[in-house]
């Protein structure tokens, strides 16, 4: 209902009663006008009624939502949705985004969906620039796939710009299957590079990267793929150093920034790399950084032409759901709302780190907090015999016990001799990011975006309880073993349990 129609209501209701509504409507129209002209993230978030009004009005611009009879569809794909619940779930946005040759292209019969697609990409670019990458994120595009497939598309988009014999992707090892399989799926050959041990942390072996470039020759290499966000004890790659090598040898550089937008350190590393060397593309997940359902990834870079080639690589049209989710979330939060989420996450990380340090002090006989300060999201607790009181137990039982008590996301990494084969490539010590990481097994816990301090406290209480139980079990086993050696078979486990309380 536009302002003229609101004024016309004065013939039905006392004009004075309409003044508040007219004021609200003018405010909304001003905010909408500013959004469409500036295409930047608003400072303050929009209300839910404003968001719904916007999305419904845009949906009415798609031809499948026109009044019955005013649109005659004679094509094979006319945005028809048979289930009313599905129609309402998607606001009637059934045509998707893009066209057969480019996922960012507009559709003649889906003007509203096309506006959502274009506006979302503009806001995402501004979002990345405002939160750490003013120079690296000159252009951004949302692709309706998760991070692994987005990395695959980035690699495929480079094929035409590299020599015909370029097949290798240099990849500083990170034990996460999606990024590795992205290389395989793109038809290239991964060259894993073991990280170096620096105290407790695992860092990029830049010397090995240079050595492999010189060994294979730049013309045989498609790209170097580095990582920011990762599980401790792995820390973000030395992006600036790798970017300098890529600039020196003329090699494309892709960064897996899966959940790095939530950490200023990761974003600063990307921006720094783009100014000191070569950085072509960096990829971030929508669900981890914007708290939306899984299904979208934001591909960004300092050169709009390079980013556009990735969008053109996507075959066919695509779902509009990830773009719609991202648009609504960005407008709901505004710049100040997302900044509050970042502050909340930073506080949760500090509370988790300090809590784990305190817990490690109380249970110093069985755990130690690893010093991984360069990882701004994930922490690791070395398990000194936890879960293996008689020397042959499974440390993974601690992770299982946490899960049974409602703690999701924590994981126990065995490391050591564990071997995992991925598409014919064998990794020893898988999960620990290194063939022989000396401080495995360990427990990972992360302070991700949206985590509250209450969740941190609840997790620490559960973990403390489990470690106390583990200590008691180890003490019982030890004393029973001593009694057996001394021939004192009358000292039973039941008695010990009672003695230890």
UniProtKB/TrEMBL annotation:
Matches recorded under Gene3D superfamilies: Type I PLP-dependent aspartate aminotransferase-like (Major domain)
Keyword Signal: no
GO aspect biological process, one term: conversion of seryl-tRNAsec to selenocys-tRNAsec
Compartments (UniProt record): Cytoplasm
Subunit structure: Homotetramer formed by a catalytic dimer and a non-catalytic dimer serving as a binding platform that orients tRNASec for catalysis. Each tetramer binds the CCA ends of two tRNAs which point to the active sites of the catalytic dimer.
Keyword Protein biosynthesis included in the entry's annotation: yes
Catalysed reactions, as listed in the record: O-phospho-L-seryl-tRNA(Sec) + selenophosphate + H2O = L-selenocysteinyl-tRNA(Sec) + 2 phosphate
Protein name: O-phosphoseryl-tRNA(Sec) selenium transferase
Main subcellular location: cytoplasm
Family membership noted in the UniProt record: Belongs to the SepSecS family.
């Amino acid at each position: 209902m536009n302002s003229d129609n609101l004024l016309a209501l004065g013939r039905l209701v006392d004009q004075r009663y309409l003044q508040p509504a007219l004021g609200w409507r003018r405010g909304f129209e001003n905010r909408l006008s500013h959004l469409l002209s500036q295409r930047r993230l608003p400072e303050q978030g929009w209300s839910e009624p404003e968001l719904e009004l916007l999305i419904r009005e845009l949906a009415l611009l798609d031809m499948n939502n026109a009044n019955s009879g005013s649109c005659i569809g004679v094509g094979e794909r006319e945005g028809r949705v048979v289930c009313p619940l599905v129609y309402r779930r998607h606001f009637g946005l059934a045509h998707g985004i893009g066209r057969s040759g480019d996922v960012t292209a507009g559709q003649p019969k889906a003007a509203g969906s096309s506006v959502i697609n274009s506006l979302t990409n503009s806001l995402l670019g501004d979002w990345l620039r405002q939160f750490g990458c003013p120079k690296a994120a000159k252009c951004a595009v949302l692709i309706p796939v998760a991070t692994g497939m987005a990395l695959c598309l980035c690699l495929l988009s480079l094929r035409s710009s590299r020599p015909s014999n370029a097949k290798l992707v240099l990849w500083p090892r990170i034990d996460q299957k999606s990024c590795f399989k992205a290389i395989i799926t793109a038809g290239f050959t991964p060259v894993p590079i073991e990280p170096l041990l620096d105290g407790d942390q695992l860092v990029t072996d830049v010397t090995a990267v240079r050595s492999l470039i010189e060994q294979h020759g730049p013309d045989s290499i498609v790209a170097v793929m580095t990582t920011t966000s990762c599980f401790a004890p792995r820390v973000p790659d030395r992006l600036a150093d790798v970017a300098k090598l890529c600039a020196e040898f003329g090699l494309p550089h892709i960064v897996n920034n899966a959940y790095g937008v939530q950490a200023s350190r990761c974003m600063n590393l990307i921006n720094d790399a783009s100014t000191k060397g070569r950085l072509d593309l960096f990829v971030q997940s929508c669900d981890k950084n914007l708290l939306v359902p899984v299904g979208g990834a934001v591909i960004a870079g300092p050169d709009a032409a390079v980013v556009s080639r990735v969008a053109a690589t996507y075959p066919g049209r695509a779902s509009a759901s990830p773009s719609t989710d991202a648009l609504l979330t960005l407008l709901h939060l505004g710049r100040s709302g997302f900044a509050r989420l970042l502050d909340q996450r930073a506080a949760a990380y500090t509370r988790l780190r300090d809590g784990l340090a305190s817990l490690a002090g109380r249970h110093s006989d069985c755990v130690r907090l690893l010093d991984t300060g360069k990882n701004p999201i994930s922490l690791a607790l070395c398990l000194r015999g936890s879960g293996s009181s008689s020397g042959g137990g499974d440390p993974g039982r601690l992770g299982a016990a946490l899960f049974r008590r409602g703690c999701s996301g924590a994981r126990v990494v065995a490391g050591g001799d564990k071997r995992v084969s991925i598409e014919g490539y064998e990794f020893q010590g898988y999960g620990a990011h290194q063939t022989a990481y000396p401080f495995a097994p360990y427990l990972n816990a992360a302070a991700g975006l949206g985590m509250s301090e209450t969740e941190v406290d609840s997790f620490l209480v559960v973990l403390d309880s489990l470690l106390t139980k583990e200590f008691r079990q180890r003490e019982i086993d030890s004393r029973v073993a001593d009694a057996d050696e001394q021939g004192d078979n009358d000292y039973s486990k039941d008695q010990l349990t009672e003695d230890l309380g």
